[in-house]
Amino acid sequence: MNARVLFDQGTPAPLRHSLAEHLVETAFERGWANLTNGELISLSEEAGFAVFVTTDRNLKYQQNLAARSLSIVVLRSTSWPRIQRAIPAVLAAINGAIPGGYIEVAID
């Protein structure tokens, strides 16, 4: 699929190694670490990112996501060991991302 993926601050960076077919950057790497979610999502869209991966489960209540062109993937944990066990579900969410989409990935 080769999508441009942006990781929010709470998304564990080692996850990028499981997304080898995608171009992954982090908000920190882009100098966007201190932006609000609204600013970060807008800049992400302007920069051409297709998927925004975050651990912020409140995002859907804070932002109007319906008009967005990028897809939001929310990981329901910040724990890297737990996320590692759910990598197939994370990959499925990212690979199936559609513009304006929103999906929460259950992490046990």
What does this entry look like structurally?
This protein has 4 helices and 5 strands, in the order ββαβαβααβ. A 5-stranded parallel β-sheet has the order 2-1-3-4-5, covered by helices on one side. The protein has 108 residues and is α/β, with parallel strands linked by helices. It has one domain: 3-Layer(aba) Sandwich (Rossmann fold), CATH 3.40.50.
Topology (elements, then pairings):
Blueprint: E1 4-7, E2 23-26, H1 37-46, E3 51-54, H2 59-62, E4 71-75, H3 80-85, H4 87-95, E5 102-105
Parallel strand pairs: 1-2, 1-3, 3-4, 4-5
Protein name: VapC45 PIN like domain-containing protein
Organism: Candidatus Accumulibacter aalborgensis
By CATH, the topology is Rossmann fold
Portion in strands:
15-25%
| Oligomeric composition of the shown chains | single chain
Number of strands: 5
* Tertiary shape: globular
Helix content class:
25-40%
Largest sheet: 5 strands, parallel
Task: List the domain count as a whole number.
Answer: 1
What key attributes describe this structure?
single chain, 108 residues, alpha/beta, Rossmann fold, 5-stranded parallel beta sheet, 4 helices, 27% helix, 19% strand
Short characterization:
This protein has 108 residues and is an alpha/beta fold. Helix content is 27%, strand content 19%. The mean pLDDT is 90.
